[in-house]
Amino acid sequence: MNIESKILSLYHEDDYRDDDYQRWNGSIAAQPFTDWKQVLSTKDESQVNELLAHHHEDPVLSCTYDHEWNTTRWWYGSNLVINQTSDTDVVVEIGPGSHATVAGHVLQSKYSTVKCYILCDLVSPLLLAYYNLSKDHDVHYVTPGDNLETLITQHKCILLPHHLSNKLYTLSGAVYYNSYSFSEMSEDEIHHYMDIIMTTRSRLLSENYMTGNGACHLCGVKYRALNSYLPKQLNILARFKPPTPTNVGSEVIIAQS
């Protein structure tokens, strides 16, 4: 089965494929992602192939947002993950975006020893990430019947749809990485992931808007300040200024549950 057929199969076999319209403050309602979902709905491989061939040129589908500092931010994020993990660690990146650039850097780096890298995102961007990462890596896209603990022993890179994120409760002591997508989520979604992190006694690497009530410097969407959503039992080990220019309120933290 070619990659276009596989993506179409994964999309149309997923009963919750349109759940993303109600998630993460409706960010999937942006026109480029609406176009991507429309192409997927046609079941036409040629249309899927055409969009995949050019999606990197779109600032939204490529997650660049035409922002000049994104390349630096992605390299910093990958180095942060590499420096905070060992060969026994499973990394879970929440909201990696369609290009999954940080994951790609970590998986390709000769300095990375992570046991497995899991990407958890909404279906639409996750399928684009699946396309991009499958070019160079052994990837597996999770379906409802899969056992996540078993998959970790079989694959270096796993893609987990957001609506199956409860499977993360089976992982103990993982390392969670998030860059600005917490700021886009609803309150329920933020609390859900914080509960997973705390319940599984995991570590959090985060670059997000911690204070304020403005708009994200990347996508222009009004953000939710993360500070008030951090559980009191979460131990913040370190705080840093972001590596690239942002709006006021952004911060990098390393925390342990």
**How many helices in DSSP terms?**
8
Total beta-strand segments: 8
The CATH superfamily title of the largest domain: Vaccinia Virus protein VP39
Helix content: 25-40%
Question: Structural class of the secondary structure composition?
Answer: alpha/beta
Instruction: Please name the CATH architecture of the largest domain.
Output: 3-Layer(aba) Sandwich
Please report the distance between the alpha carbons of the first and last residues. 42 Å
Task: Outline the fold blueprint.
Elements (H helix, E strand, L loop, with lengths): L2 H10 L18 H12 L2 H10 L15 H14 L6 E5 L6 H8 L7 E6 L1 H12 L4 E3 L6 H7 L2 E5 L13 E5 L7 H13 L3 E7 L25 E6 L9 E7 L1
Parallel strand pairs: 1-2, 1-5, 2-4, 3-4, 5-6
Antiparallel strand pairs: 6-8, 7-8
Helix pairs in contact: 1-6, 4-5
Structure overview:
The chain is of the alpha/beta class and 257 residues long. The chain has an eight-stranded mixed sheet, with helices on both faces. The protein contains eight helices and eight strands, in the order ααααβαβαβαββαβββ. The radius of gyration is 17 Å and the shape is globular. The chain has two domains: 3-57, no CATH class; 70-256, Rossmann fold, CATH 3.40.50.150. The longest helix is centred in the N-terminal third of the chain and has 14 residues, at 70-83. Helix 8 links the parallel strand 5 and strand 6. It has helices at residues 3-12, 31-42, 45-54, 70-83, 101-108, 123-134, 148-154, 187-199; strands at residues 90-94, 116-121, 139-141, 157-161, 175-179, 203-209, 235-240, 250-256. The chain is 33% helix and 17% strand.
